[in-house]
Amino acid sequence: MQIIEDSLDQLLNQVAIRTNKVANRAEVEKAVDDIIANVIENGDQALKDYEKKFDGIDLKNLRVSQAEIDDAYAQTDQKVIDALELAKENITSFQKMEVEESFIDAKKKGVIRGEKIQPLAAVGLYVPGGTAAYPSSILMNVIPAKIAGVGRIVMVTPPQKDGLSKAVLAAAKIAGVDEIYTVGGAQAIASLAYGTETIPRVDKITGPGNVFVATAKKKVFGQVDIDMIAGPSEIGIIASSQSVPSQVAADLLSQAEHDKLARPMLITDDRELAEAVNKELDRQVALLPRRAIAQAAMDNEGFIAVVDDIDDAFTLMNAVAPEHLKVQLPDAIEYLNQIKNAGSVFLGFSASEPLGDYLAGPNHILPTGGTARFFSPLGVQDFVKRTQFVSYTKKALDKEKDAITTLARVEGLEAHARAIESRFDKE
C-alpha cells in the first residue's frame, strides 16, 4: 500500500480526498426507480420476471418451505451448527444489555408523563447470494430484532441455481427467521417495502447488498425504515513500534479480501513498522484465495499514514471514522476515550477484527464511509419505536396554561391557544 507521510494538516486533507469519493450513480438510480415502480404495479409477477432476467431462474414459488429449511439444517456440518450456536449465545448475551425500558414520571402533582417502548411489528432482512452469503450476518440482524420483540422477521435472498446455501438456511433457523423468500436485488427491497401478493410489507429493512440494493433501500426510506446505507468494508489500525507487523498485515487483509472497494488503513508513528507491514502485506496477500480482490483494495483504496505521535494517529483516525478500528497498542483500553468516531473498536494485540465479525457479541452491521460520525452499530434499539404520553389534571393544566397560550400566540397559532383555554370556559 502507499505510504504517506506529511504534517497532520496535510494528512487530514489527503485522507479526506481518499475517503470522500462520490460515485456517479445516475444510471443505477434510474434502473432502481423502474424496478420499484414495476414491483408496485405487478407484484409477484415482476419479482419472477426479474429473477429470470438477472439470475436465469424460473421460479414457481417465491417462499422457501419449512421442509427445505429443516433439511438444510440437518445436512449442515455439526461444527458449523455448533459455531453458529456459540455465536448466537454470545450475540444474545451482549444484545440483551441494550434493551431499553419504558418509563413513567409522576413527580409533579396532577401530571403523568412517560415513554412507551414497543417493538416493530415486522422486519425484513436482505441476505446477499453467492459468495457474499454470510450466515453470521443473519445472526447479527435477526437476534437483536428477536430480543426487541419483533413479531415477524422475513428474510429475502437471491435464488441460486444449485439451491440456497445450507449454512444460510441453518443460520436462519437458528436465529429464528419466520419466513424466507427467494428474491434478490432492488426488486426484493421493493417487495419488502410495498408488499406483493405473496410477500406482506414490513416496517423496516436491514442487511447489506450491492449498489442496486443499497440504492433501493435509500429510495424506499420513508415508506419503511432502514438500518443504514452500507458501503464497502473498512478497517483502520493504529499501531506503534511495539506492534507485530505480521499481525497488523493479517488484520488489514481480513477486510481487504471482502471487496475490491474495501478500504484497509494503517496509521502509525513508526516509519519502520509501516515498511515492515508493507512487506508482510505483499507476502501474505500472495497466499490468499481471494488475493486479486485484496490486492485491488490495497492498491486502489488502502493507505499507510505515518504521523509524528500516537495522539496525531487518533486525530487522523477520528477524521476517517472507520467501520472497524483496531488499536494495536500496549494497554489499548487506556486510549478508549480518545476514540470519537468508529463503528466497532478492537482493543489490544489479541482482539483481531474477525472476533467481532463472528463471535464476540457486538454487532458487525456497522456504519461505513465515515458515517460513524453520526450512525451507530445495529442493535436492539433499532427494532423498537418510542411512543411518548402525557396526562394532566385540570388543576395542573391551570398552572401552566398561560405559558402555553403565550407561546402559541408568539408562533401565530391562535387555535392552539384557544384549545387550551376551552378547558376553562364556563358552560
Topology (elements, then pairings):
Blueprint: E1 3-5, H1 8-19, H2 26-55, H3 66-75, H4 78-95, E2 103-105, E3 111-119, E4 122-126, H5 135-148, E5 152-157, H6 166-175, E6 179-182, H7 185-194, E7 204-206, H8 211-220, E8 225-226, E9 234-239, H9 245-256, E10 263-268, H10 271-285, H11 291-300, E11 303-306, H12 310-320, E12 324-328, E13 344-347, H13 354-358, E14 384-392, H14 394-410, H15 414-421
Parallel strand pairs: 1-11, 4-5, 4-7, 5-6, 7-8, 9-10, 9-12, 10-11, 12-13
Antiparallel strand pairs: 2-3, 3-14
Could you explain the architecture of this structure?
The longest helix has 30 residues, at 26-55. This protein has a six-stranded parallel sheet, with helices on both faces. A five-stranded parallel sheet has the order 6-5-4-7-8, sandwiched between helices. A three-stranded antiparallel sheet has the order 2-3-14. The protein is globular. It folds into three domains: 26-226, Rossmann fold, CATH 3.40.50.1980; 231-374, Nitrogenase molybdenum iron protein domain (Rossmann fold); 393-424, no CATH class. α2 crosses α8 and α9 (245-256) packs across α10 (271-285). The mean pLDDT is 94. With 427 residues, it is α/β, with parallel strands linked by helices. It has 15 helices and 14 strands.
